[in-house]
Design brief:
The protein has 345 residues and is of the alpha/beta class. Helix content is 40%, strand content 12%. The chain is built from twelve helices and ten strands. The strands form two sheets. Strands 9-8-7-6-5-4-3-10 form an eight-stranded parallel sheet. A two-stranded antiparallel ribbon has the order 1-2. The two termini are 36 Å apart.
Length: 345
């Protein structure tokens, strides 16, 4: 598996990252550990978690994913696994995060407390990549970064990153870091897929010019690009549950991912994939990895079989003709996900 550097840091990771947000909800502990074992054996050395996982976030389950992953981590040499996790940040009006009774402003107290709790649940002394899950634009960026810098200087984290951040927010944070002499974000983790290509615009420019690595999540569009929603919401699908029984926020999220435009895009991508002898899943992951500003593409799975299909993309390189056919679909169906969740920030 290819290895890539996170920003300008000393951390080099596999170009596929194992996401863990299903551990403790869709996946029980034994299945979660089996997925981690298979990923590790396939060459994945980068695993991404968050204090608020598993999804959907609930009061009674927050932190469970880190605990499950932490117990698996004890079975492997620590230096062979790059561990990423996140402090929650505010809910931006979508929901009250079930963490610290909804107290998730990104001040020094909350950041340090969250990090210490994650260290305990993970069973490690140092988190390799510590990320802001959602930005707090009400806090001065230098104060947020100073708290994260303190964690790095005290050895509790190695490098820092952000997630679900706007181009303005990332650039503002980098400016604040340079002006105030604190640590810069080395990574930004945002939604990026064949149904949501917005990162190729302004965010890609920031990443290239400022040497920040994108860590795309949902490269399969929440499962839409696997084709499983083409005949209606399937039983057991995350967005099926959100559409049928979810709260207002979950229904809105599902409707962004599952709509006529995203379904049609998925159908077109499957046609392209079949013509080159692969699956829509593998095509989608390979396409994500093939961007110069991407360090590692975060994938998720609820079974070994799903992970095996994803790993077909490990050494896949899409030729110029295939990339041009993919781009032609984007011209015909631009911005299939009509809104990517950042508009409220």
């Amino acid at each position: 598996m290819q290895q890539r550097r996170l920003g300008s840091s000393g951390i080099v990771v596999s170009d596929i990252c194992m996401g863990t947000m299903t551990f403790g909800s869709s996946c029980d502990e034994s299945t979660s550990h089996a997925i981690c074992d298979h990923a590790f054996d396939a060459g994945i050395n980068f695993f991404d978690a968050a204090e608020i996982y598993p999804v959907p976030p609930k009061d009674e389950t927050f932190g469970v994913t880190e605990e499950i992953f932490g117990r698996w981590l004890q079975t492997k040499p620590r230096d062979l696994v790059t561990v990423a996790t996140k402090v929650t940040g505010p809910g931006h009006g979508w929901f009250t995060p079930p963490v610290r009774h909804g107290r998730t402003t990104l001040d020094r107290h909350q950041i340090i407390r969250a990090c210490e709790d994650s260290l305990r649940r993970l069973g490690v002394e140092t988190i390799d990549l510590y990320q802001i899950h959602w930005p707090d634009h009400g806090m001065p960026y230098e104060e947020v970064l100073e708290s994260l810098t303190h964690l790095r200087r005290t050895g509790k984290v190695r490098v820092i990153g952000c997630s679900n951040e706007t181009s303005w927010g990332l650039m503002k944070s980098l400016w604040a870091a340079d002006i105030h002499g604190v640590d810069r974000y080395q990574t930004v983790q945002n939604n990026f897929s064949l149904i949501n290509r917005r990162c190729e615009n302004e965010l890609a420019q920031v990443c290239r010019r400022e040497n920040v690595s994108l860590l795309p999540y949902s490269p399969l569009g929440g499962g839409v690009l696997t084709g499983k929603y083409e005949n209606g919401p399937p039983p057991g699908g995350r967005f099926s549950e959100y559409l049928q029984t979810g709260n207002d926020r979950q229904k809105a999220m599902a409707q962004r991912f599952v709509n006529d435009r995203t379904i049609e895009t998925a159908v077109r991508m499957h046609e392209i994939a079949e013509s080159i002898g692969t699956t829509g899943t593998a095509l989608s992951v390979a396409w994500s990895k093939q961007h110069d500003f991407v360090a590692s593409t975060i994938v998720g799975a609820t079974s070994i079989e799903q992970l095996k299909e994803i790993l077909v993309a490990d050494d896949m390189i899409l030729d110029d003709e295939t990339m041009a056919r993919i781009d032609a679909v984007e011209v015909e169906i631009p911005n299939a996900m009509t809104e990517d969740g950042l508009r409220r920030l």
